[in-house]
Amino acid sequence: MTRSHTALTAVALAAALLTPWSAASAQRSAPVRFGGTAGLDVPLSDLSRQTQTGLLVDAFLTGAPEGWPAALRGELSYSSFPGALDRPSQHVAGFTLNAILPASSAGSAPYVLGGVGLYNMGSYAGRPSENDAGVDLGVGYRWQRPGVSYFAEARITDVAHTGVSRQMLPIVFGVIF
Asked: Could you tell me the pTM of the whole model?
């Protein structure tokens, strides 16, 4: 599959999943909520031989369409990895769409999440960046407070980068308003 075909497929999947979400959100009393995370991003696989543990920040929208067993979360993220040895530093910007089970945000509870994303991987050494599709799968724990939720989560992200394995383990703390 070509890069443009992979990117087009991921965008089409995201649009198909977001269409019922926006319609259902307009009909339900609970609004779509926003939030953010920050934490460490541990490089795995081939990426670990080129970089050191980096930092990740992201912003997202989340909500549970009426009648769906899962909540959806659309995220924009940015990770920065310092270079290992004489290698250049690298960065990864991403857009992901994840499903979260269970969807309920009432009380404190563990959850699982997984989804698809588009990632732009590049270095600070002037090398060209590359857009690739990827998947992620993880677990988390949510603490609900009046009007705000806090959570901690970890997930494996696998980016389909040409010729090398690009896997990361973001470990983050977040807040949902």
From this structure: 0.80
